[in-house]
């Protein structure tokens, strides 16, 4: 029989384990902190991404129709170099009436074709040869057919074709630039 004085020795007190409720609260707190951090990071990254993204107007993949000459100015079968003047855009500004590049336009019967004058090798300006039967690049002597096919030299591909339309007697070109030095035709702007 036990009495008040001689019972079992007092048990050492065990530190109280965190209850499931406390653990749940801490977990919820961690989630809230993580969510807050993510939201904060998003608040910083999103505006930066927006600034770096190409503008939908005139960006990669978007049509950029430029009026380059009158149809009546083209001689049958003879390529004519025309300059492309338009607005230059970056993430912050638009600069009006800038020289954007030049292209070769050719009329044959009812059809009008255009080739970028930018050499796909390293970007020099491609010339029409004296016989008007082929193109060549003065920088490293790449040579191209009248249709723009690569025939000789280091250019990794033919001249870059551009889409043409005729509107009210004016030739318009969907002006694009392409990456240089690679065989694949990849638009850059
Ligand atoms: S830049 Fe045209 S051949 Fe090199």
Description:
This protein is α+β, with helices and mostly antiparallel strands. It folds into 2 domains: 16-53; 65-174, Rieske [2Fe-2S] iron-sulphur domain (Rieske Iron-sulfur Protein, 3-layer Sandwich), CATH 2.102.10.10. Helices cover 17% and strands 31% of the residues. The protein is built from 1 helix and 11 strands; from the N terminus they run αβββββββββββ. A 4-stranded antiparallel β-sheet has the order 2-3-4-9, with no helix packed on it. A 4-stranded antiparallel β-sheet has the order 5-6-7-8, with no helix packed on it. Strand 6 and strand 7 form a beta hairpin. The chain is globular and about 70 Å long. The N and C termini lie far apart (96 Å). Bound molecules: FE2/S2 (inorganic) cluster. It comes from Polyangium sorediatum. Pfam families: Rieske.
List keywords for this structure.
189 residues, alpha+beta, Rieske Iron-sulfur Protein, 4-stranded antiparallel β-sheet, 1 helix, 11 strands, 17% helix, globular, binds FE2/S2 (inorganic) cluster, Rieske_Fe-S_prot, Rieske (2Fe-2S) protein
What is the strand and helix layout of this fold?
Elements: H1 20-52, E1 65-70, E2 80-89, E3 94-108, E4 111-116, E5 127-128, E6 134-136, E7 143-145, E8 150-152, E9 161-162, E10 164-167, E11 170-174
Antiparallel strand pairs: 1-11, 2-3, 3-4, 4-9, 5-6, 6-7, 7-8, 10-11
The structure holds FE2/S2 (inorganic) cluster (FES).
FE2/S2 (inorganic) cluster is lined by residues 119, 121-124, 137, 139-140, 142, 153-155.
